[in-house]
Design a protein that fits this description.
The chain is mostly helical. It contains 22 helices and no strands. Helix content is 76%, strand content 0%.
């Protein structure tokens, strides 16, 4: 077996480090210009597979500068050029993605479809075009590309499964058709080669659990979430797979009554197995928010307060900041810490005022009124109850209850 054949075999088996060792050795030898071009193409592939699209693009630029036009116009080069640019777009940090990368990628793919209609990996090209259309919210063309990819030639073993996954994604998130989505996702799972990385299967089962949940099938949703967790726990699977599977099953359990202890156990597993970020982190904020909710339901109010405070520390710009302050106040009220309850509600009201927001939840003022009432500060309780009565739905048990406390506070002055 030649060195180039061995590199190709190692890349296909995802043994990237071994492939890179051979590439580096051959690059240092007195290789011909044609061999250097081939090695740069190989290295671009390994860099792309290890999430380094910038380095892959630099290698391909080197190929452009040292090779003939026939090389850089070949479908293999154009495919790699398109994949590298699209990967750079997808991997860019929020706010730094450059739409020009998707344009360059699409131009390369379009050139292949127009000039090399019998290209041996045409299925992959159509699949990538479909993904680009999805980033542009062009759902109809994306779907068309995925269907075309399914019946086109390709040497990518997992392409069929990938296409079905995208079709399932569209059916669920765009069409809200849970039955069709589940049918596509089942095909994706059944056609995914067992020899491939299980991380992708974890994602499929997570998506399936969300579809089942939306369809109101909690048992099936939990079964899919448990399969994702089992796959994510395997020693050879990426660590982030396990973290994502834990978060998914915890979100699911948090929505099902009576599973708070189990949810807490999974969240504890998440904090033990996932590296704690040094600064703000939305995911960890959500973890502590869910911990707080579970502790609250279980009546463990001190733990709940600590969790909610930590959730805000991890995400100072939390979109539900006001509701978390409200939860903290509820915990304090349950502990009969009425002064602290008042402080938390007033902080909530101040934040809302600074942000120009109106409080539309009558329970905020009801809670404030209850704390004042418990401290026999009836004048302030009356004001809080009045604010609650202004926004509570009329002619409801809630309104009648608040009205009764409002009247009692007036009698007790």
């Amino acid at each position: 077996m030649s060195d180039f054949q061995q590199i190709e075999l190692l890349i296909n088996k995802r043994e990237i480090k071994k492939a890179d060792v051979i590439i580096a050795r051959l690059m240092r030898s007195n290789s011909s210009s044609n061999d250097i071009t081939a090695l740069l193409m190989f290295r671009a592939r390994t860099r792309l597979l290890t999430g380094r699209p910038d380095d892959a693009i630099n290698d391909l630029i080197s190929v452009q500068g040292s090779s003939s036009e026939s090389t850089t116009l070949a479908p293999q080069f154009l495919e790699l050029w398109g994949d590298a640019h699209f990967a750079r777009f997808e991997l860019a940090s929020v706010g730094f993605a450059d739409r020009a990368d998707t344009l360059r990628a699409f131009e390369a793919y379009e050139q292949i479809t127009k000039q090399y209609s019998t290209y041996s990996n045409m299925g992959w090209i159509h699949y990538q075009q479909g993904r680009i259309y999805l980033t542009q919210n062009n759902i109809e063309l994306a779907e068309e590309c995925f269907h075309t990819a399914l019946i086109s030639a390709s040497h990518v073993r997992y392409l069929t499964a990938y296409c079905y996954e995208r079709l399932g994604f569209i059916a669920f998130y765009e069409d809200r058709d849970t039955e069709r989505a589940l049918a596509f996702l089942e095909r994706a799972i059944n056609t995914y080669p067992q020899s491939e990385d299980s991380h992708w299967l974890v994602q499929i089962h997570i998506l399936s659990s969300r579809v089942y949940k939306a369809a109101g099938e909690s048992d099936h949703a939990l079964a899919s979430a448990e399969r994702a967790l089992k796959l994510g726990s395997a020693p050879h699977v990426e660590k982030r797979s396990l973290s994502e599977a834990i978060l998914n099953i915890t979100e699911l359990l948090s929505s099902i009554q009576g599973h708070d202890k189990q949810a807490l156990a999974y969240l504890e597993q998440f904090t033990q197995k996932t590296k704690r970020p040094p600064g703000a982190d939305v995911t960890w904020s959500r973890v502590y928010e869910m911990r707080g909710n579970a502790h609250f339901t279980l009546g463990q109010y001190d733990d709940a307060i600590s969790d909610y405070v930590t959730a805000l520390q991890f995400n100072p710009d939390h979109p539900w900041e006001l509701s978390i302050y409200q939860q903290i106040a509820r915990c304090q009220y349950k502990k009969h810490a009425y002064k602290e309850t008042i402080d938390s509600i007033n902080r909530l009201l101040n934040v809302a005022q600074q942000d120009g927001l109106n409080i539309e939840d009558y329970r905020v003022y009801e809670l404030l009124g209850g704390a004042y009432f418990a401290l026999k500060r009836y004048d302030e309780a009356i004001q809080a109850y009045q604010s609650a009565l202004e926004i509570v739905p009329p002619n409801t048990d809630y309104g009648h209850q608040i009205r009764s406390y409002y009247n009692l506070a007036k009698e007790l002055i």
